[in-house]
Design brief:
GO molecular function, one term: acyltransferase activity, transferring groups other than amino-acyl groups
Strand content: 15-25%
Domain N-acetyltransferase: 5-154
Keywords: Acyltransferase, Transferase
CATH topology: Aminopeptidase
Number of strands: 5
Largest sheet: 5 strands, mixed
Pfam family, one: Acetyltransf_1
Radius of gyration: 16 Å
Helix content: 25-40%
Number of helices: 5
Strand order of the largest sheet: 1-2-3-4-5
CATH superfamily: Gcn5-related N-acetyltransferase (GNAT)
Organism: Salipaludibacillus neizhouensis
Distance between the termini: 39 Å
């Protein structure tokens, strides 16, 4: 790993590396399909995300190599006097750089983007069976203040 990690918005040519990182995970390997060619669903999702001004798919790069990814969604709320929130999702780093601070830099970059966009809150979720991830986010200042619920539709 080089000395300087760069962050930028993802391009379509990053999509293969992104899906590879998503699939290289114990939980996600059952859901993601990193194959060639990539399933069209990834391309459609990428196009929807990148065409929405309130979504950013960001990558961390070491030189030309994509070593991290996260999606940031900016959402206006009627609560908090009409304030905006940023939601961080799909955070992954390449196996080759795990434990080397890339994840920390990704999250701090997302927080900075939220501040630049005028958000009053940054939120994220992690699975309950990921205690290491929970500790990681808590070290970065996140607090488990709410109980989140999900309803799987398909």
């Amino acid at each position: 790993m080089g000395t300087e990690i760069r962050f930028r918005l993802a391009t379509k040519k990053d999509l293969d590396s992104i899906v590879a990182m998503l699939a290289d995970d114990v939980l996600e390997s059952k859901r993601e399909q990193h194959e060639h060619p990539l399933p069209n669903s990834y391309i459609k999702a990428f196009e929807a995300i990148t065409s929405d001004p309130n979504n950013e798919l960001a990558v961390a790069c070491d030189g030309n190599e994509v070593i991290g990814v996260q999606q940031i969604t900016f959402t206006p709320y009627i609560t908090h006097q009409g304030g905006w929130r940023a939601t961080i999702e799909g955070v992954r780093t390449s196996a080759s750089v795990r434990g080397k601070g890339v994840g920390t830099k990704l999250i701090k970059w997302a927080i900075q983007r939220a501040e630049e966009r005028g958000c009053h809150l940054v939120q994220l979720t992690t699975y309950k069976n990921r205690p290491d991830a929970l500790r990681f986010y808590e070290r970065l200042g996140f607090k488990a203040t709410d109980e989140g619920l999900k309803l799987k539709l398909s």
